[in-house]
Amino acid sequence: MDLRIVNGLIVTDGNVTREATIYVDNGKIGKICDGLDRSIGVDEEIDAVGHIVFPGLVDPHVHFDDPGFTQREDFETGTKSAAAGGVTTVIDMPCTSIPPVINGENLDYKLSIIKEKAYVDFAFWGGITPGQVENGQYRKDLGDLKDRGIVGVKFYTISGMETYPRMPLPLMDAVFRQLKELNLVCAIHAEDYYIVDFYSSYLQKIGRNDPFSWYEGRAYEAEPAAIWSVMGITEKVGNKLHIVHLSSKEGLNVVRWAKEHGMDVTVETCPQYLLFTVDDLVKKGAVLKTAPPVRQDEDKAALWEGLSDGSIDFISTDHAAGIYPEEKTKESIWDNYAGIPGIQFSLSSILTYGYQMGRITLDDIQRLMSENAAKRYGLYPQKGSLEIGADADFAIVDINKEWTVTAHIMESKGKYSPLMGEKMKGKVVKTIVRGEVVYDDEKGVTGRRGYGEFIKNKL
Questions:
Q1: How many domains would you assign to the chain?
Q2: Residues of the chain with confidence (pLDDT) below 50
Q3: 171 contact partners, CB below 8 Å, separation of at least 6
Q4: pLDDT value, residue 458
């Protein structure tokens, strides 16, 4: 065997752990033994004494901006951030690339640019624009994207991107039907266009430019209204639907209704919606500006409950770095970039504010941040798993290590975070991708540029 990890703790049920020895053979999990086992010769040994060994985390929602917007982030800095956060597989969105990933040719071009930069493994979302639906080209383009291994297709009910406009509901119906035939998930950024457009325009017209006006303009009702709209299509079509970055209690109630009525729907939320409220947005300003915005205490509490009871299927980051400080310090909140570079601190924040406070268990974290996304997107058991034969991807974590968030440790190009200065409890000490250590807490990122591989959906 190539590698042996000894004295590590594997999560089995709830907060129950068992000591195990893990053998790695040619980048795969070769054997797992209870307790300490040194019966098989190895080239290298890692002592994970007292540390949790999670299957490598899967972040199914990142914007690494490559190619096209690399002044904000690129695949090298983005995947370095992932490695430092225990994330061994990322799924990159189609919209923040030039050209957007809306056909096979564009995917091939993106892959040619980023494949030599990645430090961790990666998969792709695909996209479709209204023009492709109107001229019928979407059928061929979706087939080509499926053949290339995308995990699904991303739509916006509201969009600020010229190269990737919002998808009107009547056109969604046609694409939902095609996605059902292809057995692909459709992911939705759910904020009602008309509600947000009206209130945002009105507030700017009367001269409001404070952080609270961003919260008011992206009106609370917009999220559940948009979810109801797309659920109405899915109820008739029967396709796989996924709601990204859920922020509200009422949006969660709609998802629960859909699940209770047998619809094939999943949902994710992000650390920002679990940790912060609009009061924090008012205090911190644009560093906490996201779309949708953070909400109220009751929404935060409802989302934690949804994670615990299984109503919310997994945690993503919606990692989206802005140019700092230029895009985060403008006088008007409307002129600042909406996004946070969150992947490096995601696991630590969930450990600190979730596990350490008794809101969720270690088993919950393993499912929410590794297993469930891999299963939903056809990457399991190769990813998100500790099964024999799975990729030897691990996040080795000291759940008791206390540390402070600072800008100088950030691997992202965007050196800002709403967590800046916060004391955390729980930190990744090693990240391993297919048997290779790509991050070490004492040495930093140790992996090789271009080591990350493109992982295709197997659905």
A1: 2
A2: none
A3: 130, 133, 134
A4: 86
